[in-house]
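Question (not urgent): is this output format expected?
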Amino acid sequence: MFISDITKEMPSSYTSELEKKVYEKLNELNIDFDRVDNDTVESMEECIEINNKLGAEIRKTIIVCNEKKTQFYLVVLPAEKRFDSKIFRDKMGCSRVSFASAESMEKVLGVVPGSATVMSVINDTDNIVKVAIDKEVADSEYFACNTGENTKHIKIKTEDLLEVFLPNVNHEPTIIEL
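Got this back:
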C-alpha cells in the first residue's frame, strides 16, 4: 500500500468540501497535525501501516441512530474494540440504537460508510449529532483519523480534539467507557 511521507502542510487540492473545511478549521484553530496520503483503505486492518507511519492508531468511528432517525451519535473507539449497543445505551441513557444508513450519514454529516470521521461534525450545524468518545481514546496522547476521505489521514493531539476542535464546532464530547 502506498503511504506518503509525513507532512505538516495542508494538501494542495481537496477531494471533498468536508476535507477542505477540516483543514481550514485546523489552520484557523492553530492545531498542528501530521498528515499522510495513502491508497484507499476499507477496513481498520488496512490502517495498521498508516498507524505505524503516523505513530498513532487510526480510531474507529461509527454512526448510530435511534429508530425514528431523530437522534444520531458519532462514536469513536479504539480500532480493535467492538461496539456494544446495550452498553452504549446504558452509558448514554438513550433508547435503542442501530447503525445509521448510508443515506442518513450523507445527509447528517456528509460522509459515506468507510469514511466516517469525528471531523465530519463540522457539517452538523444543526447539532443533531452527539459525540461519544471511548475513555481509552480520550486518555491517549494522540488522535488519528481520516479527514472525510479515506485516502488522507491526520494525527493531532487528543487534547486539541477534545478541548479546541470539538467545542469550536459546537460538539462537546461525552467521554464513556465502552
